[in-house]
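Subject: mismatched residue count in predicted assembly?

I count 709 residues in my input, but I want to confirm that the predicted structure covers every chain. Input:
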Amino acid sequence: MKIAIPVDEQNLESGVCPSFGRAPYFLFYNTDTKESYYLDNSAVASQGGAGIRAAQVIADHGAKALLTPRCGENAEEVLRKSEVLIYKSIPGTVQQNIDAFVAEQLILLSDFHPGFHGHEK
Amino acid sequence: MKSKGVKIAILSGKGGTGKTLVSVNLSSVARKSVYIDCDVEEPNGHLFFKPEAVREEDITVKIPVINESQCNGCRKCVDFCKFNALAFIKNKPYVFEEVCHSCGGCRLLCPEKAIGEKEKSIGKVQKGVSGNVIVHTGIMNTGEASGIPIIKSLLNESLSDKDLPVFVDCPPGSACIVMESIKDADYCILVAEPTVFGVHNLSMVYDLVRLFKKPYGVVLNKCLDGENPAEKFCMENNIPILGRITFDNELGTLNSDAKIAARESERFRVIFSSLLETLMKEVLHETIVNPQR
Amino acid sequence: MKQLLILSGKGGTGKTTIASAFIRLSDVKAYADCDVDAPNLHLIMAQHTEPERTDYIGMSKAEIDADRCIECGLCKENCRFDAISCKNGYKVDPFACEGCGVCEAVCPADAVSMKPAVAGELMLYADDKKVFSTAQLKMGSGTSGKLVTEVKKQMKTAANPDTKLAIIDGSPGIGCPVIASLSGVNMVLIVAEPSISGISDMERIIKTAETFRTKIGVCINKHDTNPANTEKIGEFCKEKGLPFTGRIPFDPEAVKAINNGQTIVDVDCPSGSAVKEVFNSTMKLLFKESDGAET
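Triage response: the counts match. Full output below for your records.
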């Protein structure tokens, strides 16, 4: 299946980007074929709603899972409704995260922060 | 130029210099006046006036509503939105209301006319009376991005009190909400405090009022003995000084208890009345010449 | 790296005075000024080098090409922000324009285009010991939230990866720039002022900060200017279960120090002694319950 990971650099030995919405690149990795590609994150330039746009990109590319340390409520809504599962990434390299995912060692992310325009729920 | 119906904006750049102190007290000592609180994120004037007979009005903006049965999934709306307020989920657009800037673009562009609109509240305006002052207050809901529609409504609303002098209490800073607040002002009072922070931010609003070609003058607040960097700035730039309010414990206490000093104490009524007189003379183009030091 | 953000709701309560004292006391290696509208921290934290400057491009603004304009008025009719005027030809007011692109979309003559606009400037003071990130928003600009995000990002990127603590001086209000500064911080210290206005504003900023579920602490500045209100704030904190990290007296020596470009702990004064206590309590709160989260 296809998974997505926000990254700071275009290589598997770098760390996972601490921000999802404003990560410079996304890595799309196919766990079956082991093929991958990087995409520039168009949401970086947004003045607002970056998480929403980033989530849109992930969904549009057909990823079924996203590995990230943090995710906003708005992005979570887009991903959940598009049936993309969100896993909490672990400290370490991108490759280590991919391996952990494949070995089913990652847990689902359960804490989502409000967006810039977050209001009381 | 008329002194009736004149609109005076009070701004400062830095927060906490005394905009509300000055605007609340000046409007109180005028025979009859209008006070408008444009600091919609943190409105304070109403705490001093405690207005009565308050009428409230919700301020809303238009948010798109997708008619899913008419939508053909072309994604034009999602791709157009510059604010990322629309996502395309399971072949239908989905609106993120709190990110939407209400530009109306998606609705205009939809080829199937499948987007309608609904009203969303972002805050409210209140109009009440406190003795001789008609008090207009704008309050933005927490979490909203922009208070500009509320300020627009406040400034429009007060047009009905045409002959009275209007005192507009502006937000701190010099960003777009401040610009909106001073747009129709006839004159701008810049309130400054004698600190290097105060001067730094004073210079920003000084640039702002000149950019908007508004006549302006400074009120120096919290004046202490010794060098006053704000006063120095005014002298160096030939900025008219309308008055100086000395740092005063009694004034500080009255103010921190949200009491209107000019109404509580004869001493302050005199100080602010004198300031008002100087202000009105200045507004009518009698120029102030600052004494050389 | 733990991030401490200093906010107040109301302006003029002493955020920057306290932030600068904290920076001096902790000898922190990373700090930032997120009051991009009216930055003041650099006036006290004297910098001896020129900063690295980067233009901050805000949102694009519409521009009308007068040669192509056929004066049909469709742009003005559809602009929800009153940003287009038609005196002496159709022109866009760059201060009112929100960059929505509707005018560009409706123009039948292809006369409107969206052009990126410089909305401010980022500044980074960095040497091998510490980094100080700040910015100045250009007058009349919006998108201060995004610039705040850039200031924090600039600080994080430039900071030494071993940096344990970062101190961020925030802005007044509760709007976009405040919300942007709250994102991702570990603790917010609210500087309250014992006035009715100050209490009202404090309640609104606490409400805003609560949605972020970060630790919140409250301290009171100029507490002796109104002891009754100071007590009210104390009771409010107890009621809401908010940790109270101390109080600082009103101090004319503080003004003198600041005006001389010094922090209140650089000179011997009552507010300086008091802020040390507030600092200790705040740090205790910030670093207790190590939660194992990365960064």
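Chain B touches chain C through 60 residues (CB under 8 Å). Marking this ticket as 'not a bug'.
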